[in-house]
Every structure is written in structure tokens, then in C-alpha cells.
Amino acid sequence: MRLIHAFITGLIFGIGIAISGMINPAKVLNFFDIAGSWDPSLIFVMGGALVVTGIGYRLVWRRGRPLFADRFDIPNSKVIDARLIGGAALFGVGWGIAGFCPGAAIPALGTGRWEVALFLAAYGVGLALARRLKGQPIFPALARA
Predict the structure, then answer these.
(1) Which of 14, 68, 113, 141 could connect to 107 by a Cys-Cys bridge, CB 3.0–4.6 Å?
(2) How far apart are CA 47 and CA 50, in angstroms?
């Protein structure tokens, strides 16, 4: 049941990303081109996501626990350190260069564009490298099995 709900949630997210046009890297890159062909639509997509997320969190927190787990899995660190800032900067630079973030790239695979597959492959290599540098297993699900 948990996988079904995860699939439905991902499907709704993917459809929303596709309808909003955020699977098109040119649309995202035009948002960053303030001096040129600026496209502010990303602001509205993010604003809509914030409203839905805010409402969702208020509803979820009213429950004592998640539907499919014993407790909420919430980060407990409030430290803003070099790793957090560096990771956010790296994410932003990658998003600005490629026009994709991982969340939008996965539904964009449906476009059949090779650039999307290349981006996701590079993202996977980056994740594996980061895990290796931290001394973590590259495939944590396999390490638990």
C-alpha cells in the first residue's frame, strides 16, 4: 500500500511538472535570464507549490503519526554549515546550467530527449561520488538487504 501511495504522489507531481512546463529546460533557463527573455512563470509554480505544501503540512501535523510509518522522519539539525551552503550552491549552479532539477528531470524522461537521460546519469554519478566520499554505501537499499 505504501508503494501505491508513493506512486500516486509521484504521478501527481510529474503531471503537475509537465503541465506547468517545467520539464522544458528552456523555460527554467529563461527564468534565470533576467536581462534577456525572462519568464516569470517559475515563480508562480513555486508559489503554488508553497501554498499546497503549507496546507498539506498543517493537515499532516494534525495526525499523530504518518500513515505508513511509526514516526515522522524529520531532520533534527538546524546548523547552517559549509556542507549545506555548498550543496545548495552546487544544486543551484547545476539547475542554472542544465535547466533541470532531479524532480523535474524524472518526468521529463517521457520526452525522450537524450539530454534528460544524460543529466540524470550525471546526477546519479554525483550522488554515488558523494556517498563514497562520506563513507556510505552507494546503494543503501542493497546494503540493508
Answers:
(1) 14
(2) 5
CB burial class (10 A; 0-12, 13-18, 19+) of residue 3? exposed
Q: Which three cell numbers stand for residue 28?
A: 527554467
Question: Which one-letter amino acid corresponds to residue 93?
Answer: V
- CA nearest 30: which of 41, 22, 38, 18? 38
Reduced to 3 states (helix: H, G, I; strand: E, B; else coil), residue 29 is: helix
What is the enclosing helix (H) or strand (E) of 145?
Answer: none
Up-side HSE of residue 27: CA atoms within 13 Å toward CB? 16
Query: pLDDT per residue over 9-66, tens digit each?
Result: 899 999 998 998 888 888 888 988 889 889 898 899 999 999 999 999 899 888 888 8
Cell of 73: 522522519
Q: To 5 degrees, how large is the angle CA 26–CA 87–CA 48? A: 50
* Global pTM value: 0.74
Encode pLDDT of 106-124 as tens digits.
999 888 999 999 999 998 9
